[in-house]
Design a protein that fits this description.
The radius of gyration is 23 Å and the shape is globular. Strand 1 and strand 2 form a beta hairpin. It is an all-alpha fold. Among the domains are: 70 residues, Serine Threonine Protein Phosphatase 5, Tetratricopeptide repeat (Alpha Horseshoe); 54 residues, Serine Threonine Protein Phosphatase 5, Tetratricopeptide repeat, CATH 1.25.40. Helix 13 runs antiparallel to helix 14.
């Protein structure tokens, strides 16, 4: 759908008129075939990053355990004073920031945790650290970004000897900008990898950004660099991360056999390392591939394995993803009551976590089930809820999906004028 919209943006005014006429004719004479073009059976987004990944639950595998120990004293977060900002405190704030933006990538959350801890270590006489934390607690990263921009610039002025410090500051800047400004994050990570090419975390997040903007070859190169660096450094965790992310690239390309190969390599390494969060991510990824292939029993098996591990780890984001994925399978099977049960469990967790993107997905999925059941009023209600969130988030593809779903709902109810109105909005 996103590709159709992007193509239409390039069509001139006359061309859009012609397309609109063709759409209306197709809608009038071949409604069933036409509707299939716009029905969105899986409202779950992509691991992507920003949502940016190919399906909800397609979590990019990455280390979530902090590597830096200790705590820093004298930091306030919001209205609460923390005499020591522990790793757990930093992780909770990182998870909160990521959840508010619909991000679920474990490595991004780990990068944010490192950034938050690094922020406490900056000179409070030079920077207003307290204000930066107050704003972070409200989801505003601008003050923290400004601090790391200044740190990077100061290091740059110091010359080559300070390259490592500048690269570190740019990685912190990139992790914050990742949440809301793709180009700013991309520029920061590109420069950081130039200054410190041996840091695989920088390459990994750079790969995520390339995937977000659809530059799959660049993403593959970045993830391959992660793999090579990890092998050179004897870092098996980094190797497992690289295999999982390469699998994401091949899945996006539709090369499912190669995707499975990489996911299984990542799964084997994570199992060997005892990294249950990595195992959960790869079980989810394998489930998605088998669902795409139509092997629904195997898909359910892998989703349930992922769900069990996420439940054991207390990772509610992962649980929400797998409930949503299981709902999709049961909807495909026609077991609509079970589909609703799983969608509602996913919705409840996403609401609890404040994950608006996840809420929008499940409202859309519930709308589809109610339309299939013929409960058109309820279907429209859920589509409208999803659309409202998509508008709030500025997610154009999500908005387009719900315009299409609303058009389908009104067409099924015999309100053809309203159906055409929503399909025209989709093409606008």
């Amino acid at each position: 759908m996103g590709k159709i919209i992007e193509w239409l943006k390039d069509v001139n005014t006359n061309g859009k008129v012609i397309v609109a006429v063709v759409v209306i004719i197709a809608f009038a004479f071949y409604p069933d075939s036409f509707l299939k073009l716009f029905d969105k059976p899986d409202s779950n987004p992509s691991p992507a990053p920003a949502n940016h990944y190919s399906a909800q639950g397609n979590q990019i595998n990455a280390p979530i355990t902090a590597t830096n120990g200790g705590s820093v004293s004298g930091v306030h977060i919001g209205d609460t004073h923390h005499h020591g900002l522990s790793m757990d405190d930093a992780m909770k704030l990182a998870e909160k920031l990521a959840a508010e933006k619909g991000e679920q990538d474990a490595q991004l959350i780990k990068s944010l945790q490192d950034t938050i801890q690094a922020l406490t270590q900056q000179n409070p006489q030079q920077y207003d650290i307290q204000q930066a934390f107050d704003r972070l607690a409200q989801g505003d990263t601008t003050q923290a970004e400004a601090i790391f921009t200044a740190v990077a610039e100061e290091a740059k002025q110091a010359g080559q000897a300070a390259n490592s410090k500048e690269a570190e500051a740019l990685r912190h800047l990139g992790s914050l900008a990742f949440l809301h400004d793709t180009q700013k994050a991309l520029t920061a990570y590109q420069r950081s990898t130039e200054l410190d090419p041996d840091n695989w975390d920088g390459w990994n997040n750079l790969g995520h950004l390339y995937r977000r903007i659809g530059e799959l070859e660049n993403a593959e190169n970045a993830y391959t660099t992660v793999q090579k660096l990890s092998l050179q450094q004897g870092d098996r965790t980094g190797e497992a991360v690289a295999y999982g992310n390469l699998g994401n690239v091949y899945e996006t390309r539709g090369e499912l056999d190669r995707a499975v190969e990489y996911y299984e390599q990542s799964l084997a390494l994570n199992r060997e390392l005892g990294r249950k969060e990595g195992m959960a991510a790869q079980y989810g990824n394998l489930g998605i591939v088998y669902r795409i292939r139509g092997e629904l029993d195997r898909a359910v098996e892998y989703y349930e394995r992922s769900l069990a591990l996420n439940r054991e780890l207390g990772r509610k984001e992962g649980m929400a993803n797998q409930y949503g994925n299981l709902g999709i399978v049961y909807r495909i099977r026609g077991e609509l009551d079970r589909a609703v049960e799983y969608y509602e469990q996913s919705l409840a967790l996403n609401r609890e976590l404040g994950r608006k993107e996840g809420m929008a997905n499940q409202y859309g999925n519930l709308g589809i089930v109610y339309r299939i059941r013929g409960e058109l009023d309820r279907a429209v209600e859920y589509y409208e809820r999803s659309l409202a969130i998509e508008k709030e988030l500025g997610r154009k593809e999500g908005m387009a999906n719900q315009y299409g779903n609303l058009g389908n709902g009104y067409r099924t109810g015999g309100e053809l004028d309203r159906a055409v109105e929503y399909h025209e909005r989709l093409l606008a």
